[in-house]
Design goal:
Chain A is an alpha/beta fold and about 400 residues long. Chain A is built from 10 helices and 19 strands. Chain A folds into 2 domains: about 180 residues, FAD/NAD(P)-binding domain (3-Layer(bba) Sandwich), CATH 3.50.50; about 150 residues, D-Amino Acid Oxidase, subunit A, domain 2 (D-Amino Acid Oxidase, Chain A, domain 2, 2-Layer Sandwich). In chain A, α1 packs parallel to α9. The N and C termini of chain A lie far apart (about 45 Å). Chain C has about 120 residues and is mostly beta strands. Chain C has a domain of about 80 residues: Ubiquitin-like (UB roll), CATH 3.10.20. Chain C is globular, with a radius of gyration of 16 Å. The chains are: A alpha/beta (about 400), B alpha/beta (about 500), C mainly beta (about 120). Chains in contact: A-B, A-C, B-C.
Chain lengths: ~400, ~500, ~120
């Protein structure tokens, strides 16, 4: 592939959705950018992502602010790409959160209330009207709310499109180029990046290595607490559209913040353009184990059938899994590392990295160029209380 | 289940696949007194080799099948088939036909196999299962497992290969032997390997005009290795037999020739035959159009390694063909405790090798269960080991004769489909490699959907690996290290859901 | 030459059914006619036509014998597909039977009075 440049204004490590978005933003800001990726552009978690761009699953707080910013970012990006004739399967299909129990109904209603106050558009739907949105939904619902802002994208296409656009602004992309070292000078500032295929001199490194961002940080001698939280997905045969929106169980929201030590799941069901239906998802801390957990998959199938009885007769074609980059306090890490000037992290997005990518890229571009950030970046800072200290506390506890 | 009876979902030994390898394994195990459960997707035992005739007189019996790689013809008189039938009759072997292992996992103390039933397994038969829950348990725990899942035809893509009327040579053979149906009235049989001749001969005998047999390999390459097979008289005789049949029907056999395109309106109406150079690159100007209503294509066989991969068995690259195969030791033992493999899934060698491997796997499994001691394992295994070695050497020679050139990629057009299921064309695969940096089958899949469809890359995986190597200029990577599917055959979601104790039918 | 020549009747060169060579002895029901030995034929419906099949035949085989080679349009580009691997591995031959399915026509047995339909699920890239 293309030769490594001797120097670059910025090096982005990792060509997942976050790295691609950062490269695009930095290149658009006039920086010369080299994107280094050890595999191909699907080497990491992004290829496993379902491509949901959600505001609905987030409690008010910094992550929701980031999600709302990102949501607008996707809309703008999708329109701009469409003008260039590039299709990333961006669809503002909307999300429908449903409950089948009384507790679920209370949770849905309360969440909607809080989110509305934070600027999320939520339409309460009478349980008996939910099938107007989804004709195949079970009639046994207790509540439903509709989130028109929820969107969907094809993550791999989005990565390819973002990289392509970055290249149009002069960025270079180097697959099969693993970063093996980070050089810094006496003053501690970064001076360059070592790879299997040579070095690139740079004063700015964006660590967008997802799950592996901890390893990259380690190359600079600093610790970053990112661990894998595994997710499994069921994929059906291609069907005529049965599921029109993204439909999820009320306890989905609970799962994200649930005690991470325990395997958790909740049904998240959606149709794709290619006709397959994706059924997610589980959350497990099992290291990088790739053996499917069939008990969890069976429960996912059972819950999906509860919500959409028609799915009982639909065939399962395959399953896959991926590892979410998970920080102890559930907030992404975005910004310059106070310990290594010039090293910017853009990682730890757990189950929302695709959705949050455009906003992450804007915060990174602002930090690198010294411009004002569109939202307060401090909750995502590396030196926030919950991250490094949280990790130390967790370690001390065990 | 009657009180006190053992849990029917727990059995000592399961053989997956009732082809030559699986039958031989079951017989060897049963003869040591171990009760054996044999599972096979098809309604009848026999696998690809002893394909039973399903239609007409004698329907349901193991059929008469041409055997290109030795051992004459597999018939009802075949000793393995006869012994297998005997054990079925006396109940020492229990056969669950029309039963597919759709997923499996290895655990402490054995393996769990998840099963689906039905002629087309995806059709499911819930009523059936309810009627006889013991027989049709959807889960089976086995202390030892013998994998004998065979192989599928290898077809290299070419423009028009998705047209109706283009089929695999094995598929044409299966239709003829199993169903008594010819694939067409005028056909070409093309590809590479010893299997082309019996298929062409059988079609000619059945009344199809075989316009040509196109063998991609150069006659000189075949001839170079030929002296090594002189000792295998049975095979040579058999080969000559097919040649005589083809001569009698005036079927031209052309070497260094391939079908490089198929065309037609809604179905194949004509194919292009073209000469190949020694690297299998098509030679411009040698195209010849031939009118046909069928084209039967095969470039050998690709081992089915989905099940062993799920059980955690290490795969290795077949030294002759390069395909991922199950790695086994001299006892057909995989790297997973108490999991054995035999037949084509451990490397393509033909039915004769499969039978010897099966017998050895059966004996080793019996030993693992404590049914025979080391001495018996050694003594009973000795004759099988000897013939296995001889036959494996022969199969390796065949492999050398028909070693594939890599110039075939030059007959692909930009819009030639590579992945039939997801309809991904050659240009997209090339773009993934050259522009997106896809470095292996997996990254091509994730960037293009190539190999993501129903067949789980069975039809295209091999071609994609070759294309990645070709377009990246890098040597083909170790495909044995690739991730394999988690679902071996489609199942209904309710069948998966039913594995969860909380599930209630809607 | 086709085995059915033994019967003396001039074979129809377009007929893809090959009479299996007689095995054992004694007449088999439906033994006369061009497909002697195949048993008693029955019919099923396919895409609005009546198709004849013999016991033990798969849907795919019976349709091929009836001259139906294109079984379904492919999902994305609506290109015709037929029997390809013949052994249940490629999933090209999908059909629906009595509204159920899809099943693989090369494996599923033809059954009397069933309604076999084209499996047509358009897909979008
Ligand atoms: C099952 C599942 C479903 C999900 N669904 C959604 C969803 O619907 N919506 C959503 O927003 N999110 C979803 N996610 C989460 C989302 O996929 C991740 O948050 C996101 O993909 C992370 O992107 P990334 O760019 O940070 O990491 P990655 O995509 O992992 O990219 C990191 C890249 O860095 C490369 N790299 C690593 N080390 C090096 C090195 N030393 N040198 C060079 N390169 C290196 C890797 O090869 C990789 O390509 C899901 C996750 C899972 C597992
Ligand atoms: C279409 C085709 C036709 C062939 N015809 C001939 C021929 O005429 N003559 C010849 O010499 N060779 C033929 N071969 C080559 C053949 O592979 C070997 O000669 C021989 O049959 C190999 O024996 P085996 O026992 O290893 O595998 P096979 O005979 O292939 O048997 C494997 C068995 O495993 C079963 N199986 C696989 N996966 C599962 C699962 N997950 N669950 C349950 N059951 C499963 C299959 O249904 C099959 O019956 C053919 C191959 C193919 C693909
Ligand atoms: S023809 Fe391949 S599955 Fe039926």
């Amino acid at each position: 592939m293309s030769r490594l440049p001797a120097t670059a204004d910025a090096v982005v490590i990792g060509a997942g959705i976050v790295g691609a978005a950062c490269a695009d933003a930095l290149a658009a800001a006039g920086r010369s950018v080299a994107v280094l990726e050890r595999h191909a552009l699907t080497g990491g978690t992004t290829a496993a992502g379902e491509g949901n761009l959600l505001v609905s699953d987030k409690e008010p707080g910094p992550e929701l602010d980031l999600a709302l910013l990102a949501n607008r970012g996707w809309t703008t990006l999708g329109a701009a790409l469409a003008d260039d004739g590039v299709d990333i399967e961006l669809e503002a299909k909307g999300g429908l959160m449903v409950a089948t129990t009384d507790a679920g109904r209370d949770a849905i209603d309360a969440l909607a209330e809080r989110q509305r106050a934070a600027g999320v558009v939520v339409e309460q739907v009478a349980a008996e009207d939910a099938h107007r949105f989804e004709p195949h939904l079970t009639r046994e619902l207790t509540a439903a709310s509709y989130y028109p802002q929820d969107q969907q994208v094809q993550p791999v296409k989005a990565v390819a499109a973002l990289l392509e656009r970055a290249r149009g602004h002069g960025a270079t992309f180097h697959p099969a180029t693993r970063v093996t070292g980070l050089h810094h000078g006496r003053d501690g500032r970064l001076t360059g990046v070592a790879t299997e295929r040579g070095t690139v001199g740079t004063e700015v490194v964006v660590n967008a290595a997802g799950l592996w961002s901890a390893e990259v940080a380690e190359l600079a001698g600093v610790h970053l607490p990112i661990r894998p939280r595994r997710g499994q997905i069921l994929v059906t045969e291609p069907l005529p559209r049965l599921v029109h929106r993204k439909v999820y169980d009320a306890d989905y929201v609970g799962t994200i913040a649930a005690d991470p030590a325990e395997a958790a799941l909740s049904a998240v069901i959606e149709g794709t353009r290619a006709g397959t239906i994706l059924i997610g998802s589980s959350r497990e801390l099992v290291g990088l184990d790739r053996n499917p957990n069939w008990d969890l998959l069976a429960r996912m199938a059972a819950r999906a059938i509860d919500l959409f009885p028609v799915l009982a007769e639909v065939r399962l074609l395959r399953t896959y899994l991926g590892f979410r980059p998970y920080p102890p306090d559930h907030l992404p890490v975005i910004g310059e590392d106070h310990r290594i000037p010039g090293l910017f992290h853009a990682t730890g997005h757990e189950g929302a990295g695709i959705g949050l990518a455009p906003a992450t890229a804007r915060l990174i571009a602002a930090a690198v160029t010294g411009q004002r950030a569109p939202i307060d970046p401090s909750p995502f800072a590396v030196d926030r209380p919950g991250l490094l200290a949280g990790e130390e506390a967790a370690r001390a506890g065990t | 289940m009657s009180p006190g009876s053992a849990d029917p979902t727990r059995v000592p030994a399961v053989v997956v696949g009732a082809g030559p390898a699986g039958m031989a394994a079951a017989v060897a195990l049963a003869e040591t007194g171990v009760p054996v459960t044999v599972l096979d997707s098809y309604p009848h035992p026999g696998g690809q080799y002893h394909r039973p005739r399903a239609v007409g007189p004698g329907a349901g019996r193991a059929g008469v099948v041409a055997a290109p790689t030795g051992a004459g013809t597999g018939t009802g008189d075949d000793p393995t088939v006869a012994a297998f039938r005997h054990h079925l009759a006396v109940g020492t072997v229990h056969l669950r036909s029309s039963t597919t292992v759709w997923s499996a996992s290895a655990e402490e103390g054995g393996c769990t196999l998840r099963l689906t039933t039905g002629t087309d397994p995806a059709a499911g038969t819930a009523a059936h299962a309810a009627a006889d829950p013991d027989r049709d348990a959807a889960l089976l725990h086995a202390e030892v497992v013998i994998i004998a899942t065979g192989a599928t035809d290898r077809v290299l893509p070419f423009p028009g290969w998705d047209l109706p009327g283009v089929c695999t040579a094995g598929g044409a053979q299966a239709l003829l032997k199993g169903q008594g149906i010819r694939v067409g009235t005028r056909a070409v049989v093309a590809g590479s390997g010893p299997f082309l001749l019996p298929v062409a001969a059988a079609l000619a005998e059945a009344g199809t005009t075989v316009a040509a047999v196109a063998e991609a390999q150069h006659a000189a390459v075949i001839a170079r290795a030929a002296p090594r097979i002189a000792g295998h008289l049975d095979v040579v005789t058999e080969g000559l037999g097919y040649a005589r049949v083809l001569a009698r029907h005036r079927v031209p056999v052309r070497h260094a020739t391939a079908v490089t395109a198929a065309a037609g309106d809604g179905r194949v109406e004509e194919v292009t035959l073209q000469r190949l150079d020694e690297q299998w690159r098509p030679v411009p100007g040698t195209e010849q159009r031939v009118a046909v209503d069928a084209a039967c294509v095969s470039f050998g066989f690709v081992p089915q390694v989905g099940l062993p991969a799920l059980l955690g068995c290490a795969l290795t690259s077949d030294p002759v063909w390069g395909d991922p195969v199950v790695a086994v030791d001299s006892h057909q033992h995989t790297c997973v405790d108490r999991v054995f493999a035999a037949g084509e899934s451990t490397g393509v060698g033909g039915a004769a090798v499969a039978v010897e491997e099966g017998a050895l796997a059966g004996l080793a499994a019996a030993h693992a269960l404590g049914a025979i001691d080391v001495g018996a394992l050694r003594d009973r295994g000795a004759p099988h080991r000897r013939s296995r070695a001889r036959k494996q050497a022969f199969a390796a020679t065949l492999g050398r004769m028909y070693r594939r050139g890599d110039g075939w990629v030059h007959w692909l057009a930009d819009d030639t489909l590579i992945c039939r299921c997801e309809e991904v064309d050659h240009a997209s695969v090339r773009h993934a490699v050259t522009a997106l940096g896809a470095v292996d089958q997996r990254s091509v899949k994730l960037t293009t959907r190539c190999g993501m469809g129903r067949c789980q890359a069975r039809m295209c995986g091999d071609a994609v690996a070759a294309l990645v190597a070709h377009h990246s200029g890098a040597p083909a990577d170790d495909r044995a290290a690739l991730s394999t599917p988690t679902v071996l055959a489609p199942v209904r979601l309710r069948e998966l859901a039913a594995l969860s104790p909380e599930y209630e039918e809607p | 030459m086709p085995a059915r020549d033994q019967r003396g009747a001039a074979p129809d060169p377009t007929d893809l059914r090959v009479t299996p060579p007689a095995e054992g002895s004694g007449p088999v029901r439906g033994d006369d006619g061009p497909h002697g030995g195949r048993g008693t034929p029955f019919t099923f419906r396919h895409d609005g036509r009546t198709v004849t099949a013999y016991p033990g035949e798969t849907i795919g085989a019976a349709l091929l014998a009836a001259g139906v080679r294109a079984l379904r349009p492919s999902g994305f580009d609506a290109r015709p597909r037929g029997l390809f691997c013949g052994i249940g591995a490629c999933f090209d031959c999908l059909v629906t039977v009595d509204g159920d399915g899809p099943v693989r026509a090369c494996l599923a047995a033809a059954a009397p009075d069933t309604e076999v339909e084209v499996h047509d699920v358009p897909r979008q890239r």
